[in-house]
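Reviewers of the previous submission asked for a worked example of the structure-prediction workflow described in the proposal, so we include one complete record here. The input consisted solely of the amino acid sequence. No template or homolog information was supplied to the procedure at any stage.
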Amino acid sequence: MKKMMMIAGVGLMSTTLFVGCQHASPESKRIGSAAIGGGAGGAVGKSVGGNLGAGLGAALGAGVAANAKGANSKNTRNSAIGAGVGAWLGGAVLGGAAGAATGGALGGSAGAAYGEKKGKY
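From that input alone, the workflow returned the following structure tokens.
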């Protein structure tokens, strides 16, 4: 029963996120992509090369993901810097690949959001 509830919960959450992403603005898609790329790169980098690897992996992942969604060079750079610093700090403070992934995702999304909103105000 417990496994069935977990599977149903994951399925419901995935469906909700997928439907919500279809109607997101291009800016929101770039921010989300930077977060996903930063998190994935941070986790892989932490496993391969410790905190430095987490920072480099998150920076690379966030930059590539934001660029794939049509970000300009400044936004790509902001995403990469934010994800790299976030993953390095997350790996050092929280520890493990999960900490690096969390830091990379938060830093990548913050850098992308900063880049997106900076020119609008």
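Helices lie at 2-22, 26-68, 73-93, 96-118. We consider this example representative of the routine output the project will generate in years two and three.
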